[in-house]
Amino acid sequence: MQFSVSKNLLLSHLHKVSRVAPQRNTMPILSSILFELKDNKLTLRASDIELTMSSVFEVNGIKNGSVAIPSRLIHEIVSEVDDGDIEFNLQTDEKVEIKAGKGRYEILGRPGQDFPSLPSLTEINTVTLENRVLQRMIQKTIIAVSHDELKPALTGVLFQVKKDEIRSVATDSHRLVCLVNKDFTSPEYEREIIIPIKFLSLVNSYLSSEGKTVLSIGENHVMVEVDSTVIYSRIIDEKFPDYQSVIPNDNDKMLVADVANITAVLKRVSIFSNKITHQISLILNREMSKVKTDDQEVHSAADESLDVEYTGEELTIGFNADYLREIIRNVDTQKVVIKVKTPISACLILPENQNEKEEMIMLLMPIRLPD
C-alpha cells in the first residue's frame, strides 16, 4: 500500500473514526484503525465490535493494500506534523513508513486482513426521518438511558416503528421518556428495536438541521450513512420492559410551574442535600408550596418557597433533585406540568402544550421519605 494525502484531510477523518476505536480491549487490534486503499480512495475503519465506523475519501493512490495502524499513535503523529502532504508506504504486511516534511517515521501495524470485517446486514428495511425529527428523538430520550451493563435492554433507546407513528423510549427504572412523532408513516414495515446509546450519540453529532437520514435496519444491525461516513451498530437483542403499563393515567394532583424558576430553586436547595441521594422534598399545598432538604450527616438544611399553581390535597413527595431538575429541563415550553397521586407512585412530567403531531411523556419515580 502506498499513497499520499494532505495532513488536514487525513486528520479530519481520523478525528471521526478514532472516536470508535477503544484504547483498552481484549482484542488488541481493535485499538487500531484500518487503512484500506483501493485506487484513489482511502477507507479508514474503526470498530469495538458492537459499533463500527468507516470513512472514505480521495487520496493520491499509488499501490493498493491495507494495514491496521495503532489509533493513538497515528493520531498523535498526524496531529503534530507540519501542514502539507503526508506519504504512506507499507513496506511489509505490518511495517508502515510515513514521510512528512523533513521527517521519516516507522510504525508497526497489523495485517489488514486481521481487522474485523464489516457487519453483514441481512433482511434490510429502511426508515427515513427528517434530521430534525431524528435529532429530537435522540436528544429528548437519551437522558433516561441506563448505564447499568447488567440491564442491557435499558442501555439503549427503544424505537417503535408503526404504520402511522414512530416512538423513541428510554428508561433507567427511575425515570422514563417517551416521545411519539405522529407525522410519520411506514405502511409496509413495522418493528421494535433497541439501539445502543453510543451509536445514537455518534449519529446525532453528524446530523445537520436540514435534510433526511435513512436508517437501514437489518436482522441484527442498524446502519446510517452520513456523507462519506458509514456507522454500523449491533441491535441490542433483549426484551424492553412493558413501559406503557407503568405510565399512570389517574394522577389527580397537578402542579404547574415556570421551568426556569423551579429548576433554579431545585438547584439552590439541592446544594444542601445529601451528596449520595440528592434527596429533596416537594411540600405541596394550595396556599404555599416549597422545596426542602435536610442532610443530617453534615447538619445542613434548606427550604425555599415555590411560585407555582397547585390543585389537589396537601402532599409531600421526595425526589432525587438531579433527576427532577434534568427531566424538567427536558421540557421545551415555558411552563411544566407535574401530575402526582401519592408519595410513592410514579409522577408524570409533561410540557404545558404538546407540539403539533407529537406527544412527549416523562415519568419519574419518587424517593421514599423517612417517617
What does this structure look like?
- Strand 12 and strand 13 (166-171) form a beta hairpin.
- With 371 residues, the chain is α+β, with helices and mostly antiparallel strands.
- Helices cover 17% and strands 43% of the residues.
- The mean pLDDT is 94.
CA radius of gyration: 26 Å
> What is the number of helical segments per DSSP (H or I, 4+ residues)?
6
Identify the strand order in the major beta sheet: 10-6-2-3-4-18-17-16-11
The domain count comes to: 3
Q: Please give the CATH architecture of the largest domain.
A: Roll
Tags for this model:
371 residues, alpha+beta, DNA Polymerase III, Chain A, domain 2, 9-stranded antiparallel beta sheet, 17% helix, 43% strand, elongated
How do the helices and strands line up, and which of them pair or pack?
Blueprint: E1 2-6, H1 7-17, E2 32-38, E3 41-47, E4 51-58, E5 60-63, E6 65-70, H2 71-80, E7 85-90, E8 95-100, E9 103-108, E10 110-111, E11 125-130, H3 131-141, E12 156-161, E13 166-171, E14 175-181, E15 191-196, H4 197-206, E16 212-217, E17 221-226, E18 229-234, E19 253-258, H5 259-270, E20 279-284, E21 289-295, E22 300-306, E23 308-311, E24 315-320, H6 321-329, E25 335-340, E26 347-351, E27 358-364
Antiparallel strand pairs: 1-5, 1-7, 2-3, 2-6, 3-4, 4-18, 6-10, 7-8, 8-9, 11-16, 12-13, 12-15, 13-14, 14-27, 16-17, 17-18, 19-23, 19-25, 20-21, 20-24, 21-22, 25-26, 26-27
Helix pairs in contact: 1-2, 5-6
